[in-house]
Design goal:
Elements lengths: L2 E6 L5 H10 L4 E5 L9 E6 L25 E4 L1 H9 L3 E3 L5 E9 L12 E8 L2 E4 L5 E6 L4 E6 L4 E4 L11 H12 L8 H16 L3 E5 L4 H14 L3 E7 L7 H12 L4 E5 L1 H8 L5 H21 L4 E5 L8 E2 L8 E2 L9 H4 L3 E3 L7 H10 L4 H4 L19 H20 L8 E15 L2 E15 L5 E3 L4 H14 L3 E6 L13
Parallel strand pairs: 1-2, 1-3, 3-4, 4-11, 12-13, 12-15, 13-14, 15-18, 20-22
Antiparallel strand pairs: 5-8, 6-7, 6-9, 9-10, 10-11, 16-17, 19-20, 20-21
Helix pairs in contact: 4-5, 4-10, 5-10, 7-8, 12-13
This protein binds xanthosine-5'-monophosphate.
Xanthosine-5'-monophosphate binds next to loops.
Length: 507
């Protein structure tokens, strides 16, 4: 398959760059600078940015033959400086470092900047500067400080830019990438995630051959999509294990079973472990202790189930790009895996090879892949749900009765949000059962029941959050429905705290 090869020198934006190129309809592949490089089917090469200086003793490098390959090359930041150095130009620290928004001016007509304004803002971050061009290169853009912002060798189709076209702060960033990918590299621009799905299925089939794999399916977006993709590749050689710890939302366990086992026919084992988890949570009130216990127990149940059949070679995980934390220090390969439940490290416990088919995708792409695979929207567009589940939404000790109460309340809240079109508008919404007892009147009777809190937030990836401004009428409906339908609840409050200083979950 035709592709754009991105050689990564440790920039924090490399995967974003790959995503932008995929959005242009061009398949792109990221490799580390010291990986074995194959130029088969490569229509263009992008050298990414990176934290190093080209004159560092151990500065990352590339084999020279890449430069003589006749394939168009675009160097970004470090990539540009590396091109300059390797081709005989000069890179220096001249005391002008630029970070953030900088205005640049186009000084020479070039294909790379076709159809964009003569002056525009870009996102820069550099200490080093190209001060002398290699032979046969010319400057195509400069900053107000007179610094070389972009150069080209038109004949050999080699370009360098001292800024990041992939970030939104760069005006015309997409146009620049499009000019390179479509006009200069002549990519067709008709690649879609459907091609990704087909390729991944082939790849998994090749890796797994006739061997067996297991996955811990939680019913969340990532593990569901990873499971379906792998299922399409190896069918019943994939065994999915769904640990029902009893801390899920109302009917969730049944829904996961009916979707994956009954409807799609996946080889799924549902382990009903509610009693086991409740037993271990008995008397526990500290949130971190709850998390630890649930995490440990989860791994234990999963391991027990996996050991029933010793023949597994692979563990499939729904790790997505935001779970992969590149090590800033080495700039490569050292990454931590967030286990799919965020509550324990499955791979350490079980000696299996990993298959992570979604590693390079962003959340919206994972959802699109799920849609291509035919997964229901209810699964793909579900709010995030924490691994420890309702246990951290019941303040204090978790009991069977309290779980049942909270499931009912949460279900009323979520259904009302769906009904009013607000489910999609908020990032996450749920109810919290507090241990506070409060007086109410039900019928003519005094009723001493629980206080529940409703929480809904707007957020990007959960790092920060604003409380959602759900209209009063909707909150009113939810409150009435809860107190009418759940006798044990006598009071409903709405949480109006943002993160920070509060967290999204109450525990
Ligand atoms: P907080 O409460 O930290 O939540 O503001 C941010 C996001 O993370 C989720 N969350 C968890 N997810 N295990 C998880 O898998 C956990 O222990 C956990 N604690 C919080 C939370 O639901 C929100 O989406």
């Amino acid at each position: 398959m035709e592709k754009i090869l991105i050689i990564d020198f440790g920039s924090q934006y490399t995967q974003l760059l790959a995503k932008r190129i995929r959005e242009l309809g061009a398949y792109s592949e990221v490799i580390q600078y010291d990986d074995k490089i194959s130029l088969k089917d490569v229509k263009g090469i992008i050298l990414s940015g990176g934290p190093d200086s080209v004159y560092d003793e151990l500065a990352p490098d590339i084999p020279k033959e890449i430069l003589n390959s006749n394939i168009p090359i675009l160097g970004i930041c470090y990539g540009m400086q590396l091109l300059a150095k390797l081709l005989g130009g000069k890179v220096e620290q001249i005391g002008i470092a630029e970070y953030g928004k900088t205005k640049i001016r186009i000084v020479e007509k070039t294909k790379l900047f076709e159809n964009i304004d003569k002056e525009f803002n870009v996102w820069m971050s550099h200490k080093d500067t190209v001060t002398n061009l290699p032979e046969s290169f010319k400057i195509i853009s400069k900053t107000d400080n007179g610094i070389i912002a972009a150069f080209e060798n038109q004949k050999n189709k080699i370009y360098g830019i001292q800024f990041h076209p992939e970030v939104r702060h760069t005006d015309f960033g997409n146009n620049i990438l499009k000019n390179f990918v479509i006009k200069i590299c002549k990519m067709q621009g008709n690649w879609t995630l459907i091609d990704f799905v087909e390729e991944k299925i082939k790849e998994i089939r090749n890796i797994a051959k006739n061997k067996k794999a297991i996955i811990a399916l939680s019913g969340g977006v990532d593990s569901s999509v990873a499971a379906m993709l792998t299922y399409k590749a190896i069918g019943h050689n994939l065994k999915a294990i769904f640990v029902n710890h009893g801390l899920l939302r109302l009917n969730e366990a049944e829904e996961v079973k009916s979707t994956f086992k009954d409807y799609y026919g996946i080889n799924l084992t549902v382990v009903n472990a509610e009693d086991r988890f409740l037993k271990r949570l008995k008397g526990i009130t500290d949130p971190e202790e709850k998390r630890k216990i649930i995490g440990e127990e989860f791994i234990r149940v999963f391991e027990e189930e996996a050991k029933k059949d010793e023949n597994y070679d692979f563990l499939v995980q729904g790790t997505i790009y935001s779970d992969v934390i590149e090590s800033a220090k080495s700039g490569k390969k050292t990454y931590k895996i967030k286990s799919h439940h965020n509550v324990g490290g499955l791979p350490d416990q079980i000696n299996l090879k990993l298959i992570e088919p979604l590693r390079e995708l962003f959340k919206d792409e994972v959802r699109s892949v799920g849609e291509i695979l035919g997964l229901p929207k209810e699964i793909l567009y579900r709010h995030p749900f924490p691994g420890p589940g309702l246990a951290i939404r019941i303040i204090g000790e978790v009991t069977k009765e309290k779980l049942q109460l909270l499931k009912k309340v949460d279900d009323i809240f979520i259904k009302t949000l769906r009904e009013t079109g607000w489910y999609e508008k908020v990032w996450q919404a749920f109810a919290v059962l507090t241990p506070i007892k409060t007086v109410g009147v039900t019928g003519d009777k005094r009723n001493y029941g629980y206080l529940v809190a409703l929480r809904a937030v707007d957020s990007i990836e959960g790092m920060t959050a604003d409380w959602s401004k759900i209209p009063y009428e909707i909150l009113d409906t939810v409150s009435r429905r809860i107190t009418n339908q759940v006798e044990e609840i006598t009071r409903v409050v709405y949480d109006i705290s943002s993160k920070p200083p509060s967290t999204i979950e109450w525990e």
